[in-house]
Amino acid sequence: MNVAIIAAAGQGTRMGGNRAKQFLELAGTPIIIHTLRSFELCDAIQEIILVLPAPDTAGFLAIAKKHRLRKLSQIVPGGTTRAESVLRGLLAVRSATAEIIAVHDGVRPFVTSDEITKTVKAAEANEAAILTTAVTDTIKEVSNGIVARTLPRKVLRRSLTPQCFRFELLRRAYEQADVLDPELTDESALVERLGVKVTIVEGSSRNIKITNQEDLVVGEAILNELGSWS
């Protein structure tokens, strides 16, 4: 069984306001619902575990039922860091039946079923795979306010989600991680520390992470371009 862990336990402090960013609306629907729908509609995923802020877990099943999210099996309270939240989701996975784990940011609502499927399939073949997209800006490495060097764009990628791994591999990576470290924002980095090669799958630049008000505006524009998302 392939399981998606949707990490949506952040408080969205960069967004401002009183609501966590995953509950803000795009086209009248919470961002987190848009995200969950992508995995609901993907045949490569059989089960979804959602990690939310602890105060929001109790009432979300009713919301999920309203939106016909039948694959959502568990809602888990998050931790103090992203890594701890993902670990809590991982601990909720039934190890006897788990095959591929797909970890996805709850505020990336524009991932497609095709992108999810390709990344899952790549992980089935190679143990570990992540969705990426090309870097379009020129990237500078700096030191003490001075440019140290210019990095070649052709060998750079932006890391997106989902990031997909065989269950035992991801569990082993988390067993060796300090999940309270706020700098751990990427499962691939944990797996790389084990010496495992991580395959990349090219994704779309539309798979944005909504972290501020400007991203909401871009998100609305993407929805208008794509047409109905429901």
As a whole number of angstroms, the C-alpha radius of gyration is: 17 Å
Q: How confident overall, as mean pLDDT? A: 92
Shape: globular
Residues in helices, as a percent range: 25-40%
Task: Write out the CATH superfamily name.
Answer: Spore Coat Polysaccharide Biosynthesis Protein SpsA, Chain A
The total count of strands amounts to 11
Structural class by secondary-structure content: alpha/beta
What is the second-level CATH architecture?
Alpha-Beta Complex
Order of helices and strands: EEEHEHEHEHEEEEHHEH
CATH-assigned fold name: Spore Coat Polysaccharide Biosynthesis Protein SpsA, Chain A
The tally of helices reads 7
Gap from first CA to last CA: 26 Å
Largest sheet: 7 strands, mixed
CATH C-level category: Alpha Beta
Description:
With 230 residues, this protein is of the alpha/beta class. It has a single domain, classed as Spore Coat Polysaccharide Biosynthesis Protein SpsA, Chain A (Alpha-Beta Complex), CATH 3.90.550.10. The chain has seven helices and eleven strands. It has helices spanning 31-40, 60-66, 82-91, 113-126, 167-175, 187-192, 213-226; strands spanning 3-7, 25-26, 29-30, 47-52, 72-77, 100-105, 128-134, 139-143, 146-151, 157-166, 199-202. A seven-stranded mixed β-sheet has the order 5-4-1-6-10-7-11, sandwiched between helices. A hairpin with a 2-residue loop joins strand 8 (139-143) and strand 9. The radius of gyration is 17 Å and the shape is globular. The two termini are 26 Å apart. The model has no long low-confidence stretch (mean pLDDT 92).
Keywords:
single chain, 230 residues, alpha/beta, Spore Coat Polysaccharide Biosynthesis Protein SpsA, Chain A, seven-stranded mixed β-sheet, two-stranded antiparallel sheet, 7 helices, 11 strands
